[in-house]
Structure formats: structure tokens, C-alpha cells
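Q: What changes when pyridoxal-5'-phosphate is included in the input?
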Amino acid sequence: MNLESKLPDLGTTIFTQMSALAAEHQAINLSQGFPDFDGPAYLKDRLNYHVAQGANQYAPMTGVPALRQAIAAKTQQQYGISVCADNEVTVTAGATEALYAAITALVRAGDEVVCFDPSYDSYAPAVSLAGGKLVRLQLNPPAFKVDWSAFRAALSPRTRLVIINSPHNPSATLWQADDYNQLWQAIADRNIFVLSDEVYEHICFTAEGHVGALEHPNLRERTIAVSSFGKTFHMTGWKVGYAIAPAALSAELRKVHQYLTFSINTPAQLALADMLNAHPEHWQQLPAFYRAKRDRFAKALAGSRFTVLPSQGTYFLLVDYSAISELDDVAFARWLTEHAGVAAIPLSVFSAGPFPHKLVRLCFAKQDATLDEAGARLCRL
Ligand SMILES: Cc1ncc(COP(=O)(O)O)c(C=O)c1O
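A: The predicted holo structure follows.
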């Protein structure tokens, strides 16, 4: 048999590799983005409740109505925009499925998709499997700002989709209203859609806060916005997310979702609906919760030889290690795990080629004791 891979360049993701290396060396795992603490007790209680009540059969394909309505209400509260729970909100298996379904629904063979590197690692394989071509535009530290003239130059008659991500993983920067204006001006006259990955929408630290793509009235008509309850409720293992898009775009996304997963875990959806309705303060207080962790960890690193870049959002900090090592970032991340007992993610894995900066990403979604111990270890270098 001749098994010709459709994704020949892809191996195990760096997140899995670094987590395995961290376990092997009993290192503190600040590599993969997940909390080392549990989500709200109320949410767990509601899951138990709905399981006990027998809510254990298939959910409706688009998501249980109570959850779609709660998502629409939260969207209204946070962004001041009204979305139709029936036609514009789709519950998915984490943001990952929403991203995959959106790309599969929109990208045709030969289409071009623009993304900004460093970028989250699930975009490229999905574009490739859809037969599309990814056009990668480089963002550079420390501000990771889009060069809008380079963006306009990168558009072609084949451009079908632009993938954006704010708050941005891994750079921890945010888009401002002007970025969305620039994006709109560049694509207004073209048949281009936008996939906006906003999984960290509730984790941002600037005075302006997170600006969502849906808040831009023109972009809203072209955009599929994606979010994840895993990030918001510290339950990454539940894998429940959602996509919001105009009815016609949602209908296309649902055609893929229908045959990818069909529907999502029923009791988890009902529990999340209860949580959103009963405890909106959870997501409203998330910026303060994570700001305290960011500040604690940044302070712990102040005495180290790392240079800490500002983190405006997400639960990541970038640190520059050029005062410590000449190694490239992949080698340094491995060395750090083995010799300092702290696992990090190299930035080059978010780009097609080597990332020409000495930066690694550290996750601060950890208990204070974990952050203090990691800080102490990193200060010894
Ligand atoms: C930018 C970004 N998008 C999407 C995801 C995937 O989210 P989920 O776990 O809900 O599939 C992640 C998870 O780390 C992420 O950082």
C-alpha cells in the first residue's frame, strides 16, 4: 500500500511534545495553555445535575437553545450587539472545531487565505486540507502590529479569507478599533470573509479592553467569530466553544459541523447555560483574576535575566532570553525544560520558518505557588 500523507510535514504538535518533556523531567509545565486549577464548583454541580436528570442524549445540531440564548445575551452585554440565537450562534466542540468548520466551509481549492504569523497552529493544516494556500504575513516584536500596506499588497483575486486573532496567542497583544477599520477598508470591495479567533475575549488587561470583530458594523456581515468556554471557565478539557456569524455564513458552517461532530455534549451545554445565566460575574471578573496572575509572575521574573514583554491579553507572557543563551528558540525551550525545570513554548512553532527572535512563551494560568516556584527557578539562570 502506498499511503501518501495529505499532511506530510506534520508530526506531533510542539504542545504535546513539550508537555511530555515536562513530565519526563518533572518540570513545571508553563508550555501548553491550560490552567492547573479547576473551574467553578457551580458549573461542575450543574453538569452532575443534568447528567442525573437524564439529559444524556444527542443535543440539537446547532446547540441546546438555552446555551445559544445565553451566548446571545452575553454577546449583547459585552459588545452591545444583537445576534440571533437561532440563526447566528452555533455550539461547537471547542474553538478548534469552529475554526476547522469555518475554514472547510469557506475555502475552495486554490483559494488564498491570509494569516498573521506568529499564528495559532490549527489554522494552517485546515487551510491545506481544504486545498487552500496560506499567505503568511509576519508580525514583529515587541508590538506585533500589522503592516497594512503589506497586507493590501498580499491580497489577490484568489483571496477568500483572512484569519485574525485578538487577544493574540502567542504575542499577548490586542487589536484596536483602528485595526478593524484598516482591515475593513482593505477588503470592503472584495469578496473576502474574516475568521476572527477570539478565544481569549474575556482575558484582556488594557483600559480599552477587547474589541471584537463583530463590533465593526461592516465587518460583522463578513465575519465568523469564534470563542471557547474552555478558556473562560478554566475547563479546557470540556471542549465546548461556539461560532457567531450572519445567518448565511452560519448556514454554511453548520453544513460542515453537521457531519464533523453533528452535536456537542448535552449535559455540558446545559451546565454552561446555567453558569452564564447565574454567574455573569465570572467572565466579568476574569480580567482582574488573570491580571493579578500576570503581575505576580512578571514581578517574580523582574529579578531574572529574561526581558519580559508586555502582556495586554491572553494568559501568556513572552520573554526574551538573549541575555542568557545563544540557542535558537526550539533548542532553548528544550534546554530550559531539562536544566531549569520549566517548560516553555518556542515562538517559531507559530510560523512557517524559523522565528528570528529569541523569545519563548510562558503560560501564567497557574496557581500562585506554581508561578512563584517557576519564577524562582527562572531567576537562578
Ligand atoms: C488562539 C487559540 N485558538 C483556538 C484555541 C483552541 O480552543 P479550544 O480548546 O476551545 O478548541 C486555542 C487554544 O489554546 C487558542 O489559543
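Observations recorded in class: The first strand starts at residue 28 and ends at 29.
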